[in-house]
Every structure is written in structure tokens, then in C-alpha cells.
Amino acid sequence: KTSLGESNHEYMINLNNIGTVYNGLKEYTKALDYYLRCEAIQKRSLGESHPKFAFTLYNIGKLYNELGEYTKALDYYLRCEAIMKTSIGESHPDYGMVLVAILTFYFNLGNFSQGMHFLKKLSLLIEKGHYRENSELLEAVKMLKDQFIWD
Which residues contact 56 (CB under 8 A, 6 or more apart)? Predict the structure, then answer.
């Protein structure tokens, strides 16, 4: 922070990475602190429509999901999805992975109608030929379809 400055790209990446490390260590309070600091800086320096800001929102949503704070998690996931849709587009594999996270979130909570909405949306994008090169994404969708018996 001292040498690079708060709005430096590398500093923001470091905040996010430190949050991810703490999250992996299950030190959620520390992880959330770093993610929220990163979010505030990115909001000021990059703006709320930047894909890097969206990734930070995704990380915060994932953390709130792990903490069982589902309303907050969903808010962050949906904000991330909206930004990704406009900033990188529906054909980008990262957008597809955000859809997987959202539909998995809904399925895990037992909200199958909302989960199916996002699964159908994702399946339509795959049918259009998006994500052909992303085997991880395609495997995740196949697993979800098999698990929830959807055609």
C-alpha cells in the first residue's frame, strides 16, 4: 500500500488474494475484511461495471454462502452476474461459471424453480456454441443436469 498506492492494480489483487487465502484457511472474518477492503477500493478506482469488481463481488458472495448468510450471498452473486453480462458478455466462460454458482446456490437451498431458470439459461448458451473450449464448465453443467435429472 505504501509503495504502490491504494488504487494500484497489484495492491487490489493482493487484497483479493489474501482474502482468498484466509477463506481457504476458514478464517472467514479476516477473509471478509480483505474482500470488503478490495471491493471499496475497486468501486472507487475501477467503477462498479468493471469485471475485476465483479470477481470481488463473486468472492464475497461465495464467502457469505459459506457463512450461511444466504440473502447477502445471493445479492453479491446477482450483482456479479449483472456486471459480468454487460462487461464481458454471455459468451465468456467466466460468465458461465457465475451462472453455475448461482444455480448451484439455488439448488442447494431447495429453490429448484430459480435453479432451473439459471440452468436453462446456461444450457441455451451452451447450445449456441458458447463454452466449447471450457471442459470444466461443461462438466459442471453435465453433473448438475445428471444430479437434478433435467433434459
Answer: 16, 35, 38, 39, 42
Quick check: pTM over 0.90? Answer: no
Query: The C-alpha cell of 93 is what?
Result: 466462460
Q: For the chain, first and last CA: distance in Å? A: 51
Residue 145 has pLDDT above 90, yes or no: no
What are the DSSP calls for 92-116, one per residue?
SHHHHHHHHHHHHHHHHTT-HHHHH
Residue type, 106: Y
Rg (CA), the chain: 16
Which letter, b or e, does each residue of 33-59 get, where b requires 16 or more Cβ atoms within 10 Å of its Cβ? ebbebbbebbeebbeeeebbbbbbbbb
